Amino acid sequence: xxxxxxxxxxxxxxxxxxxxxxxxxxxxxxxxxxxxxxxxxxxxxxxxxxxxxxxxxxxxxxxxxxxxxxxxxxxxxxxxxxxxxxxxxxxxxxxxxxxxxxxxxxxxxxxxxxxxxxxxxxxxxxxxxxxxxxxxxxxxxxxxxxxxxxxxxxxxxxxxxxxxxxxxxxxxxxxxxxxxxxxxxxxxxxxxxxxxxxxxxxxxxxxxxxxxxxxxxxx
Length: 219
Known about the structure:
Blueprint: E1 2-7, H1 11-22, E2 27-33, H2 36-46, E3 50-53, H3 62-72, E4 77-82, H4 87-96, E5 100-103, H5 108-119, E6 124-125, H6 127-138, H7 143-150, H8 158-167, H9 173-180, H10 184-198, H11 203-212
Parallel strand pairs: 1-2, 1-3, 3-4, 4-5, 5-6
Helix pairs in contact: 2-3, 3-4, 8-9, 8-10, 9-10, 10-11
């Protein structure tokens, strides 16, 4: 049996993956985690063979969680499973030690096959991402500028940017949760992260600073 730990900040995704993968004869779901910090702790506790890791999560993102897991338990395999295929995330995840990088749109049968492949020592990225990495390696001249532009948002993730933009519209936590298909608890975590990264203490200050710094643009 291949013991798998599922990590994703969305409960629906965690439950869906647990049901789908748990139906495979050779896969055992040993636990689920909703953020990277929890993932690192549960990896120590349950010693899975493989961690299926989201990237954008509150408290600790998937890249940092992967880095911690691989430093403490290097034999544990990690597959990043995300909706984002930007090269910056791919490079960071692979540099952190991940053996695979897949998109959530993958068919469940192919995901199960990918888990088996990585468990047996293989590495796995989609053909589209491989093409992008090769193109970037062949023509890297524009990359420094692209990376510089991506570092101007106080380290906010794409999901945190989405929350911030809806927050700027005056939406409540419940409204943000409904619009972005999140739980209110997850929204609160994202907002807390936003405050921390922007070094502010409230919604109005967060929105004001975001507009002043050009992170979001006034309507």
